[in-house]
Amino acid sequence: MDDVAIGIEGRTAAEIAASVRALLERGALSPGDALPPVRALADRLGVNRNTAVAAYRLLSRSGIVVAGGRAGTRIAHPEPVALEGFASAGDGGGEAARDVGAGNPDPAWIPQPARYLSALAGRPVLYGEPVIDPELEATALAWMSADTAPAELRLTLTSGAVDAVERLLAQALTRGDAIALEDPCWLANIHTVRLAGYRAVPVPVDAEGMTVEGLRAALAHGVRAVICTPRAQNPTGAGLSERRARELRAVLADHPFVLVIEDDHFSLLSRQPFRSIVGPEHRRWALVRSVSKFLGPDMCLAVTASDPHTADRLGLRLSSGTTWVSHLLQRLAHAILTDADARDLIRRAGKHYAARNDAFAARLASVGIPVVPGDGLSMWVPVGAPAGRVTDELRRRGWIARPGDEFFLGDAQADPHVRLTVHDLSEAEADALVADLAAAISAAG
Fold first, then answer.
1. By the 8 A CB rule, do 350 and 269 touch?
2. Are 67 and 73 in contact (CB under 8 A)?
3. Same domain, yes or no, for 172 and 303?
């Protein structure tokens, strides 16, 4: 600690914080290292104690240090965050295992782009032209305006929903700002919030979606943004009921300038109607719909409808980097989405996913594991035992699954689940997974 204290320099909070960052970058400090007590550092530097406190606060808001009360302040360990798209096989796996935690769509139910590509040829698009292809803009406007209450809306295209959410938050928040996240929550949102240094305020989710009391408490904590999944909530599969949506709109009515982001990722595949928590008088809002679930994850395109102010700020965030989504990609998305055969395949895909999840829920019920199938590509299965132990036991039996702990901001142990993606299993595989899951729960308990 003495060596660290000697290396820290500065007369202002910003200078002291920059000195600590420089020591970390040079390797003089490492994750877990303790920093000097505030009083000791202030005395050595000859500054007011409040200056040292302010320096540590700057470092804390940047995610560089964590304050442990009497345990002191230490350099933060980077927290690993699970990634969407595949489940970790963990340690000790030698044999190939079947991944039932990925959350991917089935390629057999995605319209194949080859038949549409030959019709996309056109003149090159140059700098300074409209960023949204006119034909896609007309289609997207009809798609989005049907489900938005505010009178004015503007469209913005981004490279997927994650890109949209990250940029929407960046134009509205700064490090340390509070944001309301569903709990449990989609992994990408957890990752985005942690990396940006925002303060996540968990809002519990039940069978009807985001809870009213949870949102009310988050707003009382001063959140500046709310992310809500109106249907096919990931990981639970919950969707907003009409009653719940109405109650949430009433709560938000007193907070019209809190940015509300609705992530309707499952849109065209969902078996539930879209219900918004954004009222007609709300001032800061955005509805995000990507095409990845029904046109494939490689179609990196999302449409965002928002109020004009948010659209302008979002446009500024895009202007410093990728200012537009490829017009070839836009034309491909438009060609598929306006093709009758493709739209019919997407409708049948939604029914397929729902039917497969319903059938698996019936299998689980037959072995004493009651589960509500919900909406979406995956299932949220209560296991009544530590989820990590259950997934370890499943891995020994040849299955890679997602422990529910990965999705929680709060205490996952109070309500242990695993997330399973089962829609592409054969009948024999589904039977085997149910039997192995029942055995894994018994062994983990």
1. yes
2. yes
3. yes
- Residue 90 resides in a domain: no
The pTM of the full predicted model, rounded to 2 decimals, is 0.85
Spatial contact of 230 and 209, defined as CB atoms under 8 Å apart:
yes
Extract the runs of DSSP E, i.e. beta strands, from 58-198: 65-67, 73-75, 98-99, 154-158, 178-183
Residue 163 lies in a domain: yes
DSSP assignment letter at 34? B
Strand-strand pairing, 402-403 and 417-420: antiparallel
Question: What's the half-sphere exposure (Cβ side, CA atoms, 13 Å) at 433?
Answer: 28
| pLDDT over threshold 60, residue 411 | yes
Whether 368 shows a pLDDT value over 90: the answer reads: yes
Instruction: Please check whether residue 178 lies inside any domain of the structure.
Output: yes
Gyration radius of the chain over CA positions: 24
Helix (H, G, I), strand (E, B) or coil at 288: strand
Backbone angles phi, psi at 258, to 5 degrees: -75, 130
Q: Look at the chain and count its residues.
A: 445
Residue 365 sits in a domain whose CATH number is 3.90.1150.10
Token pair 């509500």 is at which residue?
372
Strand 199-206: give its sheet, edge to edge. 154-158, 302-306, 285-290, 259-263, 225-228, 178-183, 199-206, 209-210
Q: Which of 150-164, 317-331, 335-349, 371-385 has the lowest mean pLDDT?
A: 317-331
Question: Are 192 and 294 members of one domain?
Answer: yes
Question: Beta strands 154-158 and 178-183: pairing type?
Answer: unpaired
Domain boundary among 309, 335, 361: 335
Encoded tokens for 151: 């009178």
Q: Do 435 and 368 touch, CB atoms closer than 8 A?
A: no
Beta pairing partners, 290: 302
d(CA 210, CA 228): 7
In this structure, the answer to whether residues 356 and 251 fall within a common structural domain is no
| Direct distance between the N- and C-terminal alpha carbons of the chain, in angstroms, rounded to an integer | 44
Question: Residue 173: which H helix or E strand, with range?
Answer: none
Query: Is the pLDDT assigned to residue 4 strictly greater than 80?
Result: no
Burial annotation 58-80 (CB, 10 A radius, 16+ → b, else e): bbbbebbbbeeeeeebbbbeeee
